[in-house]
Amino acid sequence: MTATDGWLDSVQAWVGVFDEVAPQLLEGLYVVGSAALKDWQPGSSDIDIVAVTTEPADEEMSGTLRTAHAVFTERHPGVTVDGPFMAWGDLIGAPQGVTRPWTLDGVFRHDAECFEINPVTWYTLAEYGIRVRGPKLSEIPIPVDPVDRVRFVVDNALSYWTSVHAELRGALGELGAQDTLPSSVPVWCLLGACRMLYSAATADVASKSGAGRWAAQTIDEPNRAICTDVVALRNRAEEPVSRDVLAATEQAMADVLRRIRRFAD
Fold first, then answer.
1. Bridging pattern class, strands 102-104 and 240-242
2. pLDDT score recorded for residue 188
3. Within 13 Å of residue 23, how many CA atoms lie on the same side as its CB?
4. Pairing state of beta strands 81-87 and 47-53?
5. Contacts from 167-170 at CB under 8 Å and sequence distance 24+?
6. Where do the H-state alpha helices sit in 130-242?
7. pTM of the model
8. CATH of domain 8-139
9. Could you tell me the residue ranges of all domains in the chain?
């Protein structure tokens, strides 16, 4: 890590608060997500982490972690550090089926399974994760089965991202010719789906921008230009986008999802 990493100060502040409130409880911390994939955007990207505690969190430990999270949120409003709190043994097992504390969109939870405990996160952690505290990731035998990873992204695309596409299509039906939506809409919808296609096709992971650039060279010709345009939108401050941009986003997203469905056969 270098001093130019825009997320580094926030991560160090987060560690400092947790060490203050819960001394010696946090044994490992690794950065994943857009920061690890070199696509972190100040002002719009969350900081995604996998934290490791001394033991699997029970209700008492979860309460301590919740307190530390609340202190950090109060001291650093607007900074979001998201991810699960795992035990070391969790990292060497299948990344599903365990209930651990986690934060999402700045909200602390410990009442259900965390979505981020999944094969894609585990692969990102093993291959691209950035160590802040704890042993080198190469020393941890994190399971990274490509078959499980591809199955996960295909299932996610056919459920969540297909529903997102339907919502976008429905929104388009209600927009007038001069209406706009925030640029975060095409960025989330199209680049999120492109990430699923990239992983289904390559068994690797890519950032939103990287997946969009890849899709601009891969999907059908009429839909390639919008991928490039939406990557550019991601790298700018949020702005209104026209109905024409949203319609092109919907068509490209339909192309991407159609291609993903082939991997389900």
1. unpaired
2. 97
3. 1
4. parallel
5. 168/246, 168/249, 168/250, 168/253, 169/250
6. 146-156, 162-174, 184-186, 192-202, 208-215, 221-234
7. 0.93
8. 3.30.460
9. 8-139, 146-264
